[in-house]
Amino acid sequence: MRVNFTVNGRPQEADDVWEGESLLYVLRERLGLPGSKNACEQGECGSCTVRLDGEPVCACLVAAGQVEGREVVTVEGLADFAKQRAERGGCATGACGTDGKAGTSLQDAQHWAAKGQDSQTGEGTELSPVQQAFIDAGAVQCGFCTPGLLVAADEMLERNPNPTDADIREALSGNLCRCTGYEKIMDAVRLAAARQGEAV
Amino acid sequence: MDFLRPASWEEALAAKAEHPTAVPIAGGTDVMVEINFDHRRPEYLLDLNRIGDLYEWEVGEDSVRLGASVPYTRIMEHLRAELPGLALASHTVASPQIRNRGGVGGNLGTASPAGDAHPALLAAGAEVEVESVRGSRRIPIDEFYTGVKRNALAADELIRAVHIKKADGPQQYSKVGTRNAMVIAVCAFGLALHPETRTVRTGIGSAAPTPVRAKAAEEFLNAALEEGGFWDNGKIITPSVAKQFAELCSGACNPIDDVRGTASYRRHAVGVMARRTLTWTWESYRGTDGRANQKGSVA
Amino acid sequence: MPANGAPTKITQGTRTKGGIGESTLRPDGTLKVTGEFAYSSDMWHEDMLWGQILRSTVAHAEIVSIDTSEALAMAGVYAVMTYDDLPTDVRNYGLEIQDTPVLAHGKVRHHGEPVAIVAADHPETARRAAAKIKVDYRELPVITDEASATAPDAILVHEGRDDHHSGHVPHPNIVHRQPILRGDAAAAAERADFVVKGEYTFGMQDQAFLGPESGLAVPDEDGGVHLYIATQWLHSDLKQIAPVLGLPERKVRMTLSGVGGAFGGREDLSMQIHACLLAMRTGKPVKIVYNRFESFFGHVHRHPAKLYYEHGATKDGKLTHVKCRIVLDGGAYASASPAVVGNASSLSIGPYVVDDVDIEAIALYTNNPPCGAMRGFGAVQACFAYEAQMDKLADAVGMDRVAFRQLNAMEQGTIMPTGQPVDSPAPVAELLRRVKAMPLPPERQWESSEGSDVRQLPGGLSNTTHGEGVVRGVGYAVGIKNVGFSEGFDDYSTAKVRMEVIAGQPVATVHTAMAEVGQGGVTVHAQIARTELGVTQVTIHPADTQVGSAGSTSASRQTYVTGGAVKNSCELVREKVLEIGRRKFGSYHPAWATAELLLEGGKVVTDGGEVLADLVDVLEGESVEVEAEWRHRPTEAFDLRTGQGNGHVQYSFAAHRAVVEVDTELGLVKVIELACAQDVGKALNPLSVIGQIQGGTLQGMGVAVMEEIIVDPKTAKVRNPSFTDYLLPTILDTPIIPVDVLELADDHAPYGLRGIGEAPTLSSTPAVLAAIRNATGLELNRTPVRPEHLTGTA
To answer: From the UniProt record, which GO molecular function terms apply (chain C) (predicted)?
Structure first.
């Protein structure tokens, strides 16, 4: 079957999709976006976390046919997504964290488009605050859990700009990491929250 | 495999009538695991994501009509007051990502004894609204679970909504797993006080072939509360009553040994959860409880 | 110029930015946070096929027949291969003993053993084809434990063994046996005022790296193959792959892809040979990616173990003797079992002084899943048992548990049970002092004015307690791990270092075959090059087999051994650079001949700080490149009868204090804090060091309270091959992990460093167990502890 949807602000079309394929497979193997990771394919590890119409979901558990006409943001688009959110006022103001609702509306997502970036060395790449914080805090080791954690952490900070440690742990409880013992991940999210606070 | 994408409820019913073996998929949190791991190859997948009606809920006079696909996250956010037991149960479901996709309809459709919503539905009292091209009917929750991963649905029927009684008293929900988040229930227990009818209802998960109520325990407690005038005098429930209630709840279990836990542990744990949830709800009913408030972000 | 041309003795690199000792950031960090980093499962090639493995559904059986005809007839299927299709007579592989069939031959020995492979145009086509292969099994009785393995009429898991251990083992179903006898344990036992005995069980742990086994094999025009792969040791893979393919090693080109964690689980081959075989058969690129279910069958696990201990002490608390017997279940194939036996036996008494020991360790062949390398192997299982014994014995003597350990703690100069003196710092007592001195976390942190925060209680979000039944416990443990390959293994690494001017800047390039699996070796190599060569720009070349072997990323060895190789090659490059400088500019300044010269800040300077030349000018029109092997001190084999021998090169020590809160009624545990103190010799990158310690600590906690592969003892089949039922700690299960790093240099090691990766995994588990015992008063002789063990409902 054919599936049309939007990924990181760009319309995408996938052809000859087998009906049992997941969104994760389509992203990774058909659209050249392998950033979302395939660690468990059973919704237990969060490494494939993407935003589907703004909501963090496990891409491995979304059937490809279910994303027809919908908006997906992956780790590859996270920096642009965060930048455009900040430019649009988004939740950098903290406003959308107060009512407990997800902060990126479908409308916001539709206004947003990815820009090109130099991917060879990573040098000169513009990063979102949470991406930068993960590097700075030493939260990346093997890095396989990192994309999913970044998408989940970014969404939490959008909703809840001043999380307690327990809030961070709860929000990231669907993302397994096997390398770090999570301490540096906690540091990174605290750091991103603090920097986000300073930027306001 | 064919992927059916009905745009409306009527189309979905027609598709299900035409292809009774079609497997409905909404949140995908059960079905996709089975497909990814090659445990299931349905002839048809029936996608319910485009049917907006399934994502809506209405709060009525006595009950809440909860669309089958309303994600657990929404239940936690918006229905904590009306459906406190189910909101607590929703919070124990897997992870935030899964709670954003999964809903009660999936739990009911799969009818796994380990489904997190079942004990809360049994305790609150609920009816499952199911429909086919032949018509609509409501199945009382007590009659819904018919066997291990089997339910009362006919082959051409789909779950449209669940009608759950609004809480008229405190409700609690506990689940034992061997880690602190993202865990399938070793066993679970739901308890609801119904002061209006002066009854108590329970629900037990993962400790019998189907989700069950501990009816003997309920009857015992109803009688004990009535006899002692507890509903009126608001006294602390005596330890011996709580103990016997817990034992009867354990006795309602018919568990197995599996990789998640032993049968003996499940019986024991259900008893402990029964006693604790009774204490929490009763303290709340008496209005003396300062501790029952659970923190935890709701989205 | 120095008359003899000997290396210039200098104190190099102390003023260069980004050198050793700084917490420089990962060079691959940006790629990893943007999703651009290419892991082995991300590889993609035009026209590539997907490989699929058909695995045995039973643990032990004769294969009566295999019928692939239906599978081959399917549209989209390009190849189906079984044992009979293997191209050469080399049809087995293995790390030390080549006992593992590439595809099952006549018999399967464990659940999930590869039987056939398929290549097709879509993974679903490949799966359907594999499902159509008909295998007729005649089941055999399963061997699952020591009793069934060594029974007089036991079926031999491997008939006709002729490996180098087969001559000295007491039974063919024992892979390897290592006794260690020193002093006279029986006589010493007579002096003991207190004797404690214990039997302990250690469950089967999985490495559970998140990046699944995967890779892409691309046929080369010359008849060879290029494999993009996630592994821990490229050259070891190469040595096992090439003969099976019938290719010379130079025709099997291997490039390291992104590795999503390893922890020992990628030391053995998984899909490497299968992908190459299918690529060569079809002439097309073939990608294989395991799913999580398959991953549980696709790599070896940590050896489960039974451990039998007797410890004695005098009434003033001095250890008299230790007798122990450690039985490791190696499963169906040898993998790293012999080395696991060596570690378990030689480290079996822990970091304590005991002159009289009687030790035996064995590994079994059974029909259980094969077990091999996992972080801290051998030492992890032993530490769980000896630390439980130390608590028991302290209680028997009536001493404080930490003080009892400190009284018996080894130190520099202590003689190991193997007769080997410990010739570098061994601050065991000090590490214990440090963890004990850390402030305890406050009690009842779940309470606040708003009520109970269930997230901070046992059971977490599952809402099982609001404080009822919750009891706190505290426990301590300390461990010892060998660093590097032991027992006479020729443990070396190779580094190629190049220095040249690029775009007007001096640039160093470091090329090794070291597998970066997340540990941060690439970060450290750049730091070493900056320190040794005084440059800021360092390029880390992708790891491949175009350079000599780096050895494995395991045994806590890479910073020591490949770090040592990089340092050594940098030193040789530096000498050559200075030679060029002397040749070009020596006549302009006498210091070129007389002073100690350093490379710093892109310049050649004297030790007094005087600048002699810019490196850009020295290297103008020239480049310097050195590829050299580097070895640590040699070790010796252990005597097969007495276990005596200088078998280890270095030891690593860590201590933990665990604070737990246990819901004693429901048997649920929340670990509140796992404080760790570790001696790292020298922290080359402090941020990475702490990350390693915290990560290792949590893996130790996992096997204390939740992680276990459950094998049915009747069928030897795995019952929980998924992340639904093999539970890893989530961030909500994770305690705070304060770390106290001690830096006591080992003068034998580069920069005085000590391998760090494994030690924190050892003591974490027994510390948590001790804390749970402290909270519950239960004996708890197995790990992991499950709720039923804490509630009498097992």
So the answer is: iron ion binding; oxidoreductase activity
For residue B291, is it within any domain?
no
A-to-C residue pairs, Cβ atoms closer than 8 angstroms? 196
Confirm whether pTM is higher than 0.80. yes
Kindly list the structural domains of chain A, giving each domain's residue range(s) and its CATH number in brackets, ordered by start. 1-200 (3.10.20.30)
* Closest A-chain CA to B47: A66
* Statement to judge: residues C33 and C63 lie in one domain: no
To test the contact with chain A by mutation, choose from C33, C44, C741 the residue with the greatest count of A C-beta atoms within 10 A, namely C33
| CATH assignment at residue C582 | 3.30.365.10
Interface of C with A in 664-723 (CB under 8 A): 687-688, 690-691, 694-699, 722-723
Give residue A173's Cα distance to chain centre.
15
Asked if residue C33 and residue C48 are part of one domain, the reply reads no
- Most A CBs within 10 A among C36, C49, C690, C731, hence the mutation to make, goes to C731
Chains in touch with A (3+ beta-carbon pairs under 8 Å) read B, C
Sheet containing strand C537-540, edge to edge, reads: C537-540, C505-511, C492-502, C624-631
| CATH number of residue C63's parent domain | 3.90.1170.50
Which residues have a Cβ under 8 Å from the Cβ of B83 and sit 6 or more positions away?
A: B64, B66, B75, B120, B124, B164, B166, B167, B171
Looking at chain B, which residue has its C-alpha nearest residue C701? B179
A38/C208 touch (CB, cutoff 8 Å), yes or no: no
Is C664 part of a structural domain of the chain? no
B21 in a structural domain: no
- Compare all CA atoms of chain B with the CA of A155 and give the residue at the minimum distance: B299
**What mean pLDDT do residues C217-238 have?**
97
pLDDT mean over C98-102: 98
- The CATH number of the domain where B236 resides is what? 3.30.390.50
CB contact B191 to C (< 8 Å)? no
Inter-chain touch C731–A180, beta carbons under 8 Å: no
Tens-place pLDDT, residues C233-242: 999 999 999 9
- Give per-residue pLDDT as tens, B51-69: 999 999 999 999 999 999 9
* φ/ψ (deg, to 5) at C263: 60, 25
Range of the domain at B209: 171-286
Residue B280 in domain: yes
Helix (H, G, I), strand (E, B) or coil at C366: coil
pLDDT recorded at residue C536: 94
- Whether C123 has its CB under 8 Å from any CB of chain B: the answer is no
Residue entry with tokens 């007491």: C170
C334's CB contacts (< 8 A; 6+ apart) are: C94, C95, C96, C97, C99, C100, C163, C175, C365
Domain shared by C33 and C112, yes or no = no
**Three-state SS annotation for C274-333:** HHHHHHHHHCCCEEEECCHHHHHHHCCEECCEEEEEEEEECCCCCEEEEEEEEEEECCCC
In the numeric block, the tokens 């909404």 are attached to B26
Interface contact flag, C723 A147, Cβ < 8 Å? no
The answer to whether B169 faces chain C, any CB pair under 8 Å, is: no
Indicate yes or no: CB of B3 within 8 angstroms of CB of A170: no
Closest Cβ–Cβ partner in A143, A166, A182 for C453: A166
Do residues C33 and C115 both lie within one domain?
no
Q: Which residues of B touch A65 (CB under 8 A)?
A: 3, 5, 45, 47
Reported confidence tier of residue A200, pLDDT bands at 50, 70, 90:
low
Containing domain of residue C228, as a range? 40-140+212-259+266-298
B178 at interface of C, judged by CB pairs closer than 8 A: yes
Q: What's the rounded mean pLDDT across residues C172-187? A: 98
d(C-alpha C779, C-alpha C738), whole Å? 28
Distance from chain centroid for Cα C316: 38
- Contact (Cβ atoms closer than 8 angstroms) between residue C322 and residue C350: no
From the CA atom positions of chain B, what is the Rg in Å? Answer: 19
